[in-house]
From TrEMBL:
Pfam families per UniProt: FtsX (PF02687), MacB_PCD (PF12704)
The protein's name: FtsX-like permease family protein
Domain MacB-like periplasmic core residues, every copy: 26-252
Lineage: Bacteria, Pseudomonadati, Bacteroidota, Flavobacteriia, Flavobacteriales
Origin: domain of life: Bacteria
Keywords in alphabetical order: Cell membrane, Membrane, Transmembrane, Transmembrane helix
Subcellular location: Cell membrane
A GO cellular-component term linked to this record: plasma membrane
Annotated ranges, domain ABC3 transporter permease C-terminal: 294-408
Molecular function GO terms recorded: transmembrane transporter activity
Family designation: Belongs to the ABC-4 integral membrane protein family.
Residue stretches spanning the membrane: 27-47, 290-313, 334-361, 381-403
Membrane topology: Multi-pass membrane protein
Major localization listed first in the record, in broad terms: membrane
Length: 416
């Protein structure tokens, strides 16, 4: 056992000496592996970070949550001209669904899109995401109140002139003032602030910190709906332990009946599920990973060829030394390990440099993007380390074998 350890130590020592004595060649070999590992791990880290940010943005929603609207949130086989002729989802659709569809855990009606200007005193905030929605959103999005309260079902029904602000909106609008009870202007109308949400922090999607919520019936008093009006959506979370497929089938059937669709007519609406959206995202992530591996793999391949080429040159240069070592009793495995260690060390150092550069890149990118956080996971770091080792083994095995099989007499003669 001690002999084998000594052989390994001596082989390692020879390999390190050879790399140190040929600095330029070592640097050029490192460069190829560094670029390859950097490319692959950087792509994987970016894709993983994207996936994590998307799922964190959807974490507050039940994956069974459904959006009933005229728009499809993903690819669809329905032709564009047909989708354009779908009727808007209106408040009357919402009213029918909540009264006639069973097993609903929470339901809300929202008017989609739109940024507004919010004013208080001399302070003005532009492009604030004001969401006109019924009180059910409080349960669906699992909103948390820091101060005051959310509007009630009664206030939602009558369209009371009240508003709930996100943390950042309240902070920027009122600064050190207490916001509850204050009147602000939105849509050119006065609204009373009755609540402020807790601080959520930034994310890939719009954070509740930068939003405000008002009763949808307040907005419906002065903004038109209907076919040419504002687009709407019914948001539904089924009750717990409900068969989702049966619930969706029942929902579809009720909407078809309410809209007077004949049995041979197609649906003129879409039911978009969060679970379907996450599956769609997973498919995109998988494709991005594959493309990243494909493109970065070429860089890694070039790095591997570079190490193999350098190792063959190294064997050629040290043929005389190999012959002397073998004539003095060095066994084939000692020569094999000597060159194999050299290749693996080259690949590992290149890989570690590549990982270090990715880590620096993630820190810099996170600072510049602000709301998007890049993360270099332990799994990706281990993968980079493993890939480096494999590249070194594969690239160095053939040169190492050829070196170990040299005839000592011929090797010494060749080197003279």
């Amino acid at each position: 056992m001690i002999i084998y350890l000594r052989v390994l130590a001596e082989s390692f020592s020879f390999a390190v000496s050879a790399l140190v004595n040929n600095k330029l060649r070592t640097f050029l070999s490192l460069l190829g592996v560094t670029v390859g590992i950097f490319s692959i791990i950087a792509v994987l880290a970016a894709v993983d970070s994207l996936e994590r940010n998307i799922k964190e943005g959807l974490s507050g929603l039940d994956t069974n949550t459904m959006y009933l609207t005229k728009f499809s949130f993903g690819p669809t086989d329905v032709p564009r001209w047909q989708r354009d002729n779908f009727p808007q989802t209106e408040y009357k659709d919402f009213d029918f669904v909540r009264r006639n569809v069973s097993d609903i855990g929470a339901i809300a009606f929202a008017i989609l899109g739109g940024s507004e200007t919010v004013r208080y005193g001399g302070q003005t905030l532009t492009n604030v995401g004001v969401t006109a929605i019924t009180d059910g959103v409080y349960q669906i999005e699992d909103l948390k109140i820091a101060e005051g309260r959310f509007y009630t079902e009664a206030e939602s029904e009558i369209g009371a002139p009240v508003i709930v602000l996100g943390h950042s909106v309240a902070e920027n609008l009122f600064e050190s003032e207490y916001p509850i009870g204050k009147e602000i202007r939105v849509y050119g109308r006065k609204l009373q602030v009755i609540g402020v949400l807790k601080k959520y922090g930034s994310g890939l999607f719009e954070s509740p910190d930068d939003k405000a919520y008002v009763p949808v019936n307040f907005v419906r008093q002065f903004k038109t709906g209907g076919a040419q009006g504002l687009p709407g959506a019914i948001i539904i979370t089924p009750a717990k332990d409900v068969d989702i497929n049966a619930f969706e089938a029942n929902l579809v059937q009720n909407i078809r009946i309410f809209r007077g669709l004949k049995p041979d007519e197609p649906d003129n609406f879409f039911i978009n599920k969060i679970s379907g959206f996450t599956q769609f995202i997973d498919g995109i992530i998988a494709t991005m990973n594959f493309i990243g591996w494909l493109i970065s793999g070429f860089s890694l391949l070039v790095g591997g060829f570079g190490i193999a080429n350098i190792m063959f040159v190294s064997v050629k240069e040290r043929t005389n030394i190999i012959g002397i070592q073998k004539s003095l009793g060095a066994k084939n495995k000692f020569i094999l390990l000597q060159f194999l260690f050299e290749a693996v060390i080259l690949a590992l150092v290149g890989g570690l440099i590549g990982l270090f550069l990715v880590w620096i890149a993630t820190l810099v990118a996170s600072q510049f993007t602000g709301e998007f956080e890049f993360v270099l996971s332990f799994g990706n770091m281990f993968l980079g380390f493993l890939l480096s080792s494999v590249i070194g083994l594969i690239s160095g095995i053939i040169p190492a074998i050829s070196a170990s099989k040299l005839d000592p007499v011929e090797a010494i003669r060749t080197g003279i």
